[in-house]
Design brief:
The protein is an alpha/beta fold. Helix content is about 35%, strand content about 25%. It has ten helices and 17 strands. The chain has a seven-stranded parallel sheet, sandwiched between helices.
Amino acid sequence: MPLLLTSNQVRQIVQEIQSSAHPLPVEVDGIADSFKAFLIGSLFKETGRSLLIVTPTSEEADKLIGNLHFFLSFLGVVQEIDYFPSLEIIPYEQVDPPPGLISERTKTLRHLSQTEPGSRHLVITTVQALMAHLPSTEDFKKASLTLRQFDACPKDDLLEKLIDLGFDSASMVENPGEFSHRGGILDFWPVERDLPVRLEFDGELIESLRSFNPFDQKSVAPHETVELWPVLNKKREGLKKETTSLFSYFKENRLLILDEPNKIEKEFLEFEAEILEYYAQALDRREEVKSPQQLYHSAKGLLQEMEKWPSVHCSGLQFETKNRRRKK
């Protein structure tokens, strides 16, 4: 029968997490899916730590996010949930990732890289998202650009910067990560914004910045400043410097939660095999492509990295794992 957590059980789990500088994983077995969200919300409230929650796939992530919104409200916790999805493609496929996924990834890394002292984060991600290489925190922050009304900004320099950030040139801006220009007008759609922005030049000065509706081209609102962040799209790769994983965006005071750890390990190994298969097919087509090692972390390396984190393992079915503490 699925476990329904009580407040006392949650407090006991929190105490066990806090009892050692590097505890073994605390395992919670037989827990109902909806109560995983209750536990996560309670841990965020009681531990004072940032949480990174890993699910096997995007389907489990979507379900968890819905449940977590409810339980955070129930617990009186006001906190934004950041979702870091995979691009749902492999670079060797001849397709582009959905723009919405690129936006979600950029928003999450922007929040993590702009952490203020004392602030915390609640991030949900998946196995496939974890495996992809990411720019280092410093490279990601340094690549960002802030445009301000009335600042000097040569148009050609800005166009070059947009390309460096991974934006695509288009005849008309229709999706996040695109830009177009004509005369003294530059349209661009920052991937973390809901609407595109129209910049009007007066010589080399930024005369105005306005968001606009991409369907009827009508202005929506003026802006004094607009931030631009890298487009995290493996098809374009705006940043080509040091690479890292999502783990490095969490420095201290952190807690890792694995939703179904056995499924997570299986998904790591299966996705790694799928990557190698697509790579072999690309080589058979005589395509010039990067090796998997240049684009992805190894499953073994990420599983080892997880062992360095204080963690809670949540499983819907009970199973035995040697030398690990269990909560029932």
